[in-house]
């Protein structure tokens, strides 16, 4: 069957280059899946219609995301609503170091005076039931190390 170009293709391609995640939704049977497979033939593709994949993503979303790290295409992601939280975590936290069941989030910022609000994605880690969140760090161009709030440090690049 000949591929039919969709009007939204250029927007999807630009979005994929600009954002860490892209959600494609629309009416049934309009060629969303065919378009995504055509535009991104080399990306890993996980179909959550598959009972095994859906069960794995539902029961242990953290492990599911570790086994399927970005870039990955998640088809039928709405079947596992809790997975959105983990996708968000993957997209918004630059690095997560795990040691002895504790997750230590790290954000890298270009500014010299980061605020605690810029690390709001770290709070998502509190919802990972099987892990504890440790002290987070914001690596930035601030002049000296400092505390932004409980469990959140500002670390100058030169300090590393």
Overall description:
The chain is α/β, with parallel strands linked by helices and 160 residues long. Helices cover 28% and strands 22% of the residues. Strands 3, 4, 5, 6, 7 and 8 form a 6-stranded mixed β-sheet that branches. The protein has a two-stranded parallel sheet with strand order 1-2. Helix 3 (51-59) packs across helix 4. The mean pLDDT is 87.
Structure summarized in a few sentences:
With 160 residues, the chain is an alpha/beta fold. 28% of the residues lie in helices and 22% in strands.
Q: Distance N terminus to C terminus? A: 55 Å
Q: Please state the structural category.
A: alpha/beta
Number of helices: 5
Spans of at least 5 consecutive residues with low confidence: none
Order of helices and strands: HHEHHEHEEEEEE
User: What is the general shape?
Assistant: globular
Query: What Rg do the Cα atoms give?
Result: 19 Å
Helix content: 25-40%
Number of E strands: 8
Domain module tally = 2
Output mean pLDDT: 87
Tell me what portion of residues adopts beta-strand conformation. 15-25%
Largest sheet descriptor: 6 strands, mixed
Tag the structure with descriptive keywords:
5 helices, globular, alpha/beta, single chain, 160 residues, two-stranded parallel sheet, 28% helix, six-stranded mixed β-sheet
């Amino acid at each position: 069957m000949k591929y039919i170009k969709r009007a939204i293709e250029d927007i999807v391609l630009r979005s994929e280059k600009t954002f860490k995640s892209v959600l494609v939704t629309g009416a049934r049977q309009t060629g969303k899946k065919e378009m995504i497979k055509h535009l991104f033939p080399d990306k890993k593709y996980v179909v959550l219609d598959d009972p095994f994949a859906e069960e794995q993503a539902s029961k242990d979303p953290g492990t599911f995301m570790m086994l399927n790290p970005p870039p990955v295409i998640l088809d039928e992601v709405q079947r596992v609503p809790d997975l959105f939280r983990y996708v968000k975590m993957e997209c918004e936290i630059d690095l997560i170091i795990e040691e002895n069941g504790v997750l230590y989030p790290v954000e890298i910022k270009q500014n010299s005076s980061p605020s605690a609000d810029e690390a709001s994605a770290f709070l998502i880690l509190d919802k990972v039931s099987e892990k504890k969140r440790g002290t987070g760090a914001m690596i930035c161009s601030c002049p000296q190390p400092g505390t932004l709030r409980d469990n959140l440090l500002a670390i100058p690049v030169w300090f590393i």
